[in-house]
Amino acid sequence: MQNWYEQTRAKTEQIFQSIIKHDFVKELTGATLDKDTFGFYVNQDSLYLSEYKKSLVAVGSKCHRHKDTQFFYESATGIIQVEDELHKKFLEKKYINPEPSPTCELYNSYLARIVNNESVEVGAAAVLPCFTIYKEVGDFILANQKNSDSNPYQSWIETYASDEFALAVKQAIDIVDTYALTASPASLAKMEEVFIKTSKLEWMFWDSAYKQEAWI
């Protein structure tokens, strides 16, 4: 299928609109997001990414082309480097909690099941929204904020609106689009299913962070 990402992304527009209209993103944009809420988010993001990078490696290990394998491996390494810097800046000791929230646990468990049990094209589609949605959110905030000089979360925002991250997102999209060209109808249907589901899980992650979701 030509332009698989473009066609499938169009089917998730309502999800993306729900994300950028969420109070978490609106308050992040306006620099009014409660510090404890952001601290909770960063802690959960750290827990999520510690497992997400394993999913990237799992996808990379199944890739048919060496350059694709290298991309996913390097992306996993990049998470360690870039996110560690952000977490050092924003993750104060009082916010550190080793227990994933229910949504964080669900998202990681779902990704692990897909990338380890499904084909490479399905696994690549499942991990893609974490790339694309963060890029779109970063771009949206940067385009709509009026306080870039005073927003305490600006370095977080600029990380995901950066040219470097944009390049990584483009590479991830290109890889999935390439695999979609030779995927069977059944695989294409599964790719769409997992992409839409992980896009929904992205919304759930923002929402759970805003609510500081707990098990009980």
Polypeptide structure, described:
The protein contains 10 helices and no strands. The chain has one domain (12-211): Up-down Bundle (Heme Oxygenase, Chain A), CATH 1.20.910. Helix content is 78%, strand content 0%. The chain has helices at residues 4-10, 13-20, 23-29, 35-62, 66-90, 102-117, 120-144, 154-160, 163-181, 185-211.
Sequence-ordered SSE layout with sheet pairings:
Elements: H1 4-10, H2 13-20, H3 23-29, H4 35-62, H5 66-90, H6 102-117, H7 120-144, H8 154-160, H9 163-181, H10 185-211
Tell me, briefly, the overall form.
globular
At CATH level 3, the topology is Heme Oxygenase, Chain A
Largest sheet report: none
Unreliable parts: none
The CATH architecture can be named as Up-down Bundle
Q: What is the typical, i.e. mean, pLDDT? A: 95
Q: What is the CA–CA distance across the termini?
A: 45 Å
Number of strands: 0
Keywords:
Heme Oxygenase, Chain A; globular; single chain; mainly alpha
Task: Quickly describe the structure.
The protein has 216 residues and is mainly α. It contains ten helices and no strands. The mean pLDDT is 95.
